């Protein structure tokens, strides 16, 4: 049988370049899809931030011009196979040789170029996809441009599009002039049924309107974004088009996150040697200058220090949390206000709180392995990876019931002996504090706690199930049904 052919388009992919969770998904999902026999290839910009040793392995394939408004811009395509996945890199130094990835005055032009280049590349690479799978606003206009400029060409006539929303908050909103001046689209697209958004144009809205299927990164988030509270002014559109919207939960990379083989943690362990986990705790306590105590529950937190991550809830009841017999270890950077408060608290409670205001992937892994509990009190969380990583490492999550946190963490019920963590519903600091106290209470019941840890580690949080759901969706859209 002919293989499904997917061109997976993303603005960032780990380990080449990363600013957030999109890069992790764009690295892990294509690998999982190839394992089940789908010919998926990834296309992304060739940013200057990509390490030189990786750039040196790329092979130049071809070059061509890409129409952007009245101009034709140079585009080179380079190829690299990495961990069994073929990658195409879009080269244009004017657009992508910059200090950062996003936030430039000409982002509308830069990402217009990227979307056109993705489509133009199909004429020049030896790969004709059945589906182009686009991600977030940066590649959302592929679906619009495909319909407007390429459908007449037999090479493109049968291509379907899938658009995944990783975070609805960032939409790619630009002035009306981008529509005709750069995208070469007529004014018929400047209406609320197409791209118009409060006097501007909205790339993400284009992706939602014109793609054949829209997915987001958890079933709960797919429901939440259809409400005014989470819909970021697109909830009406998403309710209207909910027949083509579904939630498919992200997974985590089981090769990258495996306590049995992880070289970055202090002591390796598995579900069959859970007793070794405590050695990680003692070594982390020593490294961070906390009192070395086996019996004290360590609550870990690896997070961006931002309002959406629930840091204000934490600060509101931090004195009460630290009055408990616990140690709290925080790793992350973010808003200066939160950073300074956490630094101040760590000076006030040197034996209780270690605030590490930095990003360090190795320390993050050590915290996942060494902690007993992992706190994620997010205001909203489309999917969340931290709770899945912590479950994989036998560290029980304490989460707010939103987005992917709601889909992956089942609250512990001591009467039915069900659940794999602890959760609270309302975005309220005292509800969170009550849930932390409840988790600490069960920590003292070693028999119940060890059973919970074992259950957490035995759960499947890999990409395997998600990859099968994407395969089912792809087949529904194509002739391979």
Give a written overview of the molecule:
The protein has two domains: about 5-250 and about 465-475, Glycogen Phosphorylase B (Rossmann fold), CATH 3.40.50; about 275-460, 3-Layer(aba) Sandwich (Rossmann fold). It is α/β, with parallel strands linked by helices and about 475 residues long. It has 19 helices and 18 strands. Helix 4 crosses helix 5 (about 140-150) and helix 5 packs across helix 7. It has helices spanning about 20-35, 50-55, 95, 105-120, 140-150, 175-180, 205-210, 220-225, 235-240, 275-290, 310-315, 320-325, 335-350, 360-370, 385-390, 405-410, 430-445, 445-460, 465-475; strands at about 5-10, 40-45, 60-70, 70-80, 85-90, 130-135, 160-165, 175, 195, 200, 215, 245, 300, 325-330, 355, 375, 395-400, 420-425. The chain starts with a strand and ends with a helix. The strands form three sheets. It has a nine-stranded mixed beta sheet with strand order 3-4-5-2-1-6-7-11-12, sandwiched between helices.
In short:
It catalyses: [(1->4)-alpha-D-glucosyl](n) + ADP-alpha-D-glucose = [(1->4)-alpha-D-glucosyl](n+1) + ADP + H(+). The protein is α/β, with parallel strands linked by helices and 481 residues long.
Overall pLDDT level: 96
CATH class annotation of the largest domain: Alpha Beta
Q: Which sheet architecture does the biggest sheet show?
A: 9 strands, mixed
Give the number of domains: 2
User: Approximately what portion of the residues adopt beta-strand conformation?
Assistant: 15-25%
Low-confidence stretches: none
Here the CATH topology of the largest domain equals Rossmann fold
CATH architecture of the largest domain: 3-Layer(aba) Sandwich
Radius of gyration: 23 Å
- The count of strands amounts to 18
Number of helices: 19
* Amino-to-carboxy terminus distance: 12 Å
Oligomer: single chain
From the helix content, strand content and strand pairing, which structural class follows?
A: alpha/beta
The spatial strand order of the largest sheet comes to: 3-4-5-2-1-6-7-11-12
How would the global form be characterised?
A: elongated
The residue fraction in helices comes out at 25-40%
CATH superfamily of the largest domain: Glycogen Phosphorylase B
């Amino acid at each position: 049988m002919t293989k499904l052919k997917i061109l997976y388009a993303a603005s960032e992919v780990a380990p080449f370049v990363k600013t957030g969770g999109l890069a992790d998904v764009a690295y892990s999902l294509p690998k999982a899809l190839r394992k089940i026999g789908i010919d998926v290839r990834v296309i992304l910009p060739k940013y200057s931030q990509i390490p030189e040793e990786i750039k040196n392995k790329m092979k130049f394939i071809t070059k061509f011009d890409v129409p952007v408004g009245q101009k034709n811009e140079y585009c080179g395509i380079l190829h690299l196979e990495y961990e069994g996945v073929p990658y195409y890199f879009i080269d244009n130094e004017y657009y992508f040789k910059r200090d950062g990835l996003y936030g430039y005055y000409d982002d509308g032009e830069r990402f217009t170029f990227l979307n056109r280049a993705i489509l133009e590349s199909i004429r020049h690479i030896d790969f004709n996809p059945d589906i182009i799978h686009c991600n977030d606003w940066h590649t959302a206009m592929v679906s619009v441009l495909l319909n407007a400029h390429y459908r007449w060409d037999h090479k493109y006539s049968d291509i379907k599009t899938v658009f995944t929303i990783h975070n609805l908050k960032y939409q790619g909103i630009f002035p009306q002039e981008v529509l005709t001046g750069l995208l070469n689209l007529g004014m018929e697209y400047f209406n609320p049924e197409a791209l118009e958004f409060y006097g501007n144009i909205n790339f993400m809205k284009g992706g939602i309107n014109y793609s054949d299927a829209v997915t987001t990164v958890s079933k709960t988030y797919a429901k939440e974004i259809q409400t005014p509270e989470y819909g970021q002014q697109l909830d009406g559109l998403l309710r209207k088009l909910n027949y083509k919207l579904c939630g498919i939960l992200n997974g985590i990379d089981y090769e990258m996150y495996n306590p049995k083989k992880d070289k970055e943690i202090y002591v390796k362990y598995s579900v069959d040697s859970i007793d070794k986990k405590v050695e990680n705790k003692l070594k982390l306590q020593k490294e961070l200058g906390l009192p070395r105590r086996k019996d004290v529950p360590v609550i870990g937190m690896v997070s961006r220090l931002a309002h959406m991550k629930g840091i204000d809830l934490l600060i509101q009841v931090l004195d009460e949390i630290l009055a408990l017999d616990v140690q709290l270890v925080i790793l992350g950077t973010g808003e200066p206000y939160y950073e300074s408060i956490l630094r101040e608290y760590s000076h006030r409670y040197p034996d209780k709180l270690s605030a590490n205001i930095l990003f360090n992937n190795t320390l993050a892994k050590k915290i996942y392995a060494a902690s007993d509990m992992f706190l994620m009190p997010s205001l909203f969380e489309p999917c969340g990876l931290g709770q899945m990583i912590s479950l994989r490492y036998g560290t029980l999550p304490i989460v707010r019931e939103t987005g992917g946190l709601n889909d992956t963490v089942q609250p512990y019920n001591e009467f039915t002996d069900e659940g794999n963590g602890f959760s609270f519903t309302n975005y309220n600091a005292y509800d969170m504090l009550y849930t932390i106290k409840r988790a600490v209470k069960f920590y003292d019941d070693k028999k119940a706690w060890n059973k919970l840890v074992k259950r957490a580690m035995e759960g499947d949080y890999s990409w395997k199930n998600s990859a099968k759901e994407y395969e089912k969706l792809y087949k529904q859209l194509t002739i391979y049904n």
